[in-house]
Amino acid sequence: MKIGIVNDLAMALEALRRALAQRPEHTILWSATDGDEAVMRCAQNRPDLVLMDLLMPGMDGVEATRQIMARTPCAVLIVTASVRDNAPLVFEAVGHGAIDATDMPVLGEGADNAAPLLSKIDMIGRLIGDRPNKTARKSADCPPTANRLVAIGASAGGPPAVAKILGGLPATFPAAIVVIQHIDEQFTQGMADWLSRSSTWPVRLARPGDCPRAGTVLLARAHEHLVVNADGRLGYTREPAELSYCPSVDVFFESINASWPGQAIGVLLTGMGRDGASGLKALRSKGHHTIAQDKASSAVYGMPKAAAELGAAVDILPIEKIAPRLQDVFAVNSRSTPK
Predict the structure, then answer these.
(1) Residue 34 to residues 58, 62, 66, 246, 295: CA-CA distances in angstroms?
(2) Are 278 and 272 in contact (CB under 8 A)?
(3) What is the spatial distance between Cα 166 and Cα 282, in angstroms, rounded to a whole number?
(4) What are the catalytic residues?
(5) Roughly how many angstroms between the first and final C-alpha of the chain, as a whole number?
(6) What's the predicted TM-score (pTM) here?
(7) pLDDT tens per residue across span 147-157
(8) What residues have CB less than 8 Å from 293, skipping those under 6 apart?
(9) Which domains does the chain show, CATH number per domain?
(10) Contact assessment for residue 315 and residue 325, using Cβ atoms and an 8 Å cutoff
């Protein structure tokens, strides 16, 4: 990949250069010392990936990410001294389209020190390459208690989009909600807490054995695929292991097709790549209602664009109209379902 580096500290720039030197297939296209310069360089010579610092003089990494995604979209990975300490800024950058975040490697701590960064870059490389997803789930009977489910898949730009949907639903909304968000493990609990402030109901991480029910919002944890099992309860699996993202939206959508006995709505939001598009198509083919976010309101029009191109979405909507549409769909289904 052709990579741009944005950081105002000479030691950080050197640490990143040494880390990337371990992967000769990557090329450093340019480096910038602040957000203004990064925006300009992306316009002049757009890279495949930008390694973006957060705290810099002048324009910070959050605003630089916003402007880059608006003008010359490309993959952005936040690389900062402490992801945990800068979590609010990381969420803002992800909201503007950054794909992920990782801690800055430190000079003098050995080659293994760069492993987390290189792993993130490898993942983004697979994502940009649009490797096809291979998923398979077995059909099974489900318990009669299962009823209505909204499954939401999102990636870059997803947290504020999910918050917008949750904030638009009333306390009487008659379906369980499960969210698959591409995000690092260290952020999952923080995202659940953050989303709880926008939602009528508490948001918590999904646990093995959970049964999705109306009035609950469950968020998939990282590094394993969330699935609906044969008994209608949630579980985790590491297979398929070759996918670019774990958890995968496609894997969850396809497990709904195989094992969820009630009504389901699939929602695919902003994100880079194609994860969720084929799964959404499968949901529509089985008669479930499907929604994709529109281009204008998406921070990154990748995943929903792929769904639109496949004809996977019944509705293509701006983010502010998705919550009202969810209510409308279940209201119509309630009137048409015999008592």
Answers:
(1) 7, 11, 14, 32, 29
(2) no
(3) 24
(4) 155, 182, 275
(5) 58
(6) 0.71
(7) 899 999 999 99
(8) 161, 267, 268, 269, 270, 304, 316, 317, 318, 319, 322
(9) 2-128 (3.40.50.2300), 148-336 (3.40.50.180)
(10) yes
